[in-house]
Amino acid sequence: MIIANPVLLKEMRQRFRGIKAPLILFIYLMVLGGFILGYMYLIRDRLLSFDPSESMGIFAMLSVLQLILLAFVTPGLTASTISGERERQTLNVLLTTELKPAGIVISKMISSCAFTLLLLIAALPLYSVILIYGGISPTQLWGVFAFYLVTMFLFGAVGMACSTFFQRASISTITSYGIMAFLGAGTAFLAAFINDAARDDAVYPQPEVIPFSVQFLQDINPVLVLAHILGGGPAFGPEADWILPYWAVYALFYLGVGVLLLVWSGYRLNPLRKK
Fold it and tell me: pTM for the full model?
């Protein structure tokens, strides 16, 4: 069982033991709370009072900050797990235990993502400041939190895949951040390029809906999906009527790719695999 996994227990004790974890949590909450109070002060100073309609701006700012946290922290924690064991020359000892390679990969990923999940959960009370003034529904709040969980799963799986593939932790970390940059900025740039090319095409000079590839790229882009959840709507014009909504496409794609990456990581880590 995962709960009785010695690798998971050891990793969890190492990450949460001592003053480092609560200190980072304290600084993180102070920074987020400072941003919220500072934004409210600027609005009050401009309007002489706080307008409850401005709560959507606070909600959007807090959501974007936490997405940036996921993009920077999660790959950095997972990309050095297996490669770090390889650099310390302890991976071969770990593989001689009764743990399966898939169990080692899952344990490393859970222990790495546990601290990021703690940061997300600890920031939930800050949203109460927004809910006091209204303008944000609890359904929208839980939708954003579910979006964070799905995004964190794929980011962690990407880091684990890079960690098992590359020999050095520095190379795997840089590659993980490169993949995150492609998911956040590269897919948006590619979607904008394809959309402009389709509109300049003589056959389809003014398409009524965006092309299939553009719609798929914007549905897997975390920044555009978060903007859509916050009420921004599609970024590249009217969408085609798919069977699945944008959030279902995002969830299925990220969960499916994350599972495939974890399975591949376990196979890659298996010393008995056929080379």
Answer: 0.85
d(CA 172, CA 163): 5
Within a domain: 275: no
The tally of domains found in the chain comes to 1
The neighbour count for residue 256, using CB atoms within 10 Å, is 11
- pLDDT at position 261: 93
Q: Residue 21: left if φ>0, alpha if ψ -120 to 50, beta else—which one?
A: alpha
Q: Which tokens in the block code for residue 263?
A: 């399975």
Q: Are 219 and 252 in contact (CB under 8 A)?
A: no
Look up the domain containing 94 and give its range: 6-269
Rounded Cα distance between 224 and 236, Å, is 10
What are the tokens at 215? 């719609």
**Where does residue 241 fall: left (phi above 0), alpha (psi -120 to 50 degrees), or beta otherwise?**
beta
- Is residue 126 within 8 A of residue 29, CB to CB? The reply is yes
Q: Is residue 183 a contact partner of residue 192, using CB atoms and an 8 Å limit?
A: no
Q: What are the tens digits of pLDDT across the range 5-30?
A: 676 777 777 777 778 778 888 888 88
**Environment class of 186 (CB within 10 Å of its CB; exposed 0-12, middle 13-18, buried 19+):** middle
Residues 59-103 have pLDDT tens digits of 888 888 888 888 888 888 888 888 888 888 877 777 777 778 888
Dihedral sign from CA coordinates of 133, 139, 144, 148:
positive
